[in-house]
Amino acid sequence: MTVHALEAIVLGSVLVVAAWTDIRYRRVPNVWLGLGLVAYVILFWLFGFDPWKAVLGGLLGLIVFLPFYWLGGMGAADLKLLGLVGVYLGPQGVLYSALYTALAGGALAVLALVLRASRRLPYAVAIAVGVGVYEFRSFLSF
């Protein structure tokens, strides 16, 4: 198993749990985000990833959707989740993931309108789909 595959499995696991808890309970517990960060630190310690790539990716992940958080269109947990995605994927990966996330979020909003859902959208689902699309496209380019 490659290091990239191990990274993708860990991040994918965090995203699946985050999406499930967002659908089920309408929240993403900080404990899952913290465990995802601890797992990255362990991977960093074992494999020696670039710390600047992780820091810049994490900050960019937080900044990209910050205006939507300020406007009330996104919760703090969604913002922190995208920051964690940035830690794992770095600046370029989080930007592409944010683009795919926005597209997935738009599709989710259209689905909510069609189904006349009046509840808050579980945006962790859109983040998980967006990151999944990015990882799949990255896998195809290997």
What is the tally of beta strands? 0
What helical percentage do the residues reach? over 70%
User: Poorly predicted ranges (pLDDT <50, ≥5 residues)?
Assistant: none
What series of H and E elements makes up the topology?
HHHHHH
Number of helices: 6
Give Rg in angstroms. 15 Å
What is the overall pLDDT average? 92
Number of domains: 1
Tell me the fraction of residues in β-strands, as a range.
under 5%
Shape, please? globular
Structural class: mainly alpha
Largest sheet: none
Rounded to the nearest angstrom, the distance between the terminal CA atoms is 14 Å
Helices, strands, pairings?
Layout: H1 3-25, H2 30-47, H3 51-64, H4 66-70, H5 76-114, H6 123-140
Helix pairs in contact: 1-2, 1-6, 2-5, 3-5, 5-6
